[in-house]
């Protein structure tokens, strides 16, 4: 059985993670890119989704100065896209953490001994040796639960950064991408949208304020670069929604109709959240202090 989260920290349990990510790899394959990258892409004008997702993976690898290193930790490794791209860039060995059994099976099924996947919460991780770089894309959103006070969230995040600092070699870098809260005041519809996301899509999850993330990293990491790209997530969501719509007939054969309708609504709601500045997309490069 997949372990639940460590009791020392807040955020989503393995059960909550599996509720979303274990719906089925075939379902996600209908509307994600060919590498199954389930996070905001990094776009240039004439990109297609595949090109934009590879550009994002490369930006994270370059920011973490991971290319050509001996070992890389990917926290929230998804279906292994970043691990695979890292190996293409000369990384010798990658370790990926996930709480999704389906994702772990997919990575293991690639049959590459240089890609080591563990069904393991980051709070339970013990590396065999220091990492040269750490990357986390689309996992930080799950490290706090709705209802936690700011001080509780920061403390949970601080524990995460403390562990990452311990795992990194001196001078090592960490690249992190996360959805973060926006500053726009929510109207009634935005509140309903948020409740739908929490109850139906991402359970036991509350996204951070960027200030919470940076506060928690103090005295552990030095910020090297911070960029906000909400428009890039709008474009990514539009592409996902278009692909899901084009493959709807196949989707109804894979997942129950209620699940499909939830995802169709989720993609619309999420796009509206970014467009109305209720959420933003943060990409952060940090250096071990």
Q: How would you describe this structure to a colleague?
A:
There is one protein chain. The protein has 289 residues and is of the alpha/beta class. The protein has one domain: 3-Layer(aba) Sandwich (Rossmann fold). It contains eleven helices and seven strands. It has a seven-stranded mixed beta sheet, with helices on both faces. Helix 5 (101-109) links the parallel strand 2 (93-98) and strand 3. Helix 6 (150-167) crosses helix 8, helix 7 (188-201) crosses helix 11 and helix 9 runs antiparallel to helix 11 (257-275). The longest helix is centred in the C-terminal third of the chain and has 19 residues, at 257-275. 46% of the residues are buried.
Summarize the structure.
This protein is an alpha/beta fold and 289 residues long.
The CATH architecture category equals 3-Layer(aba) Sandwich
Could you tell me the CATH topology label. Answer: Rossmann fold
| Oligomer type | single chain
Mean pLDDT: 94
Strands ordered across the widest β-sheet: 3-2-1-4-5-7-6
| Class inferred from helices and paired strands | alpha/beta
CATH class: Alpha Beta
Q: Which series of helices and strands comes N to C?
A: HHHEHEHEEHEHHEHHHE
> What percentage of the residues does DSSP assign to strands (E)?
15-25%
The major β-sheet equals: 7 strands, mixed
Query: How many structural domains?
Result: 1
Q: What is the number of E strands? A: 7
């Amino acid at each position: 059985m997949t372990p639940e989260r460590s009791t020392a920290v807040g955020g989503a349990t393995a059960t909550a993670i599996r509720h979303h990510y274990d719906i089925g790899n075939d379902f996600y394959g209908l509307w994600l890119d060919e590498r199954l990258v389930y996070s905001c892409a990094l776009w240039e004008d004439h990109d297609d989704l595949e090109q934009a997702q590879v550009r994002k993976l490369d930006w994270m690898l370059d920011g973490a100065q991971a290319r050509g290193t001996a070992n890389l930790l990917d926290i929230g490794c998804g279906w292994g896209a970043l691990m695979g791209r890292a190996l293409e860039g000369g990384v010798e060995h990658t370790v990926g953490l996930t709480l999704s059994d389906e994702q772990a099976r997919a990575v293991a099924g690639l049959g590459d001994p240089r890609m080591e996947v563990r069904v393991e919460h980051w709070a339970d991780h013990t590396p065999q040796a220091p990492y040269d770089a750490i990357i986390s894309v689309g996992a930080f959103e799950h490290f706090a639960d709705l209802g936690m006070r700011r001080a509780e969230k920061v403390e949970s995040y601080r524990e995460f950064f403390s562990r990452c600092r311990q795992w990194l070699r001196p001078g090592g870098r960490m690249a992190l991408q996360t959805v973060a809260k926006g500053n726009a005041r929510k109207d009634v519809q935005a509140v309903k949208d948020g409740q739908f996301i929490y109850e139906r899509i991402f359970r036991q999850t509350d996204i951070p304020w960027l200030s919470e993330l940076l506060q928690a990293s103090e005295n552990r990491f030095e910020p090297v670069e911070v960029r906000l790209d909400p428009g890039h997530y709008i474009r990514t969501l539009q592409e996902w929604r278009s692909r899901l719509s084009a493959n709807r007939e196949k989707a109804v054969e894979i997942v129950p109709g209620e699940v499909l309708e939830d995802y169709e609504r989720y993609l619309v709601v999420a796009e509206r959240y970014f467009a109305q500045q209720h959420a933003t997309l943060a990409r952060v490069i940090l250096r071990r202090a």
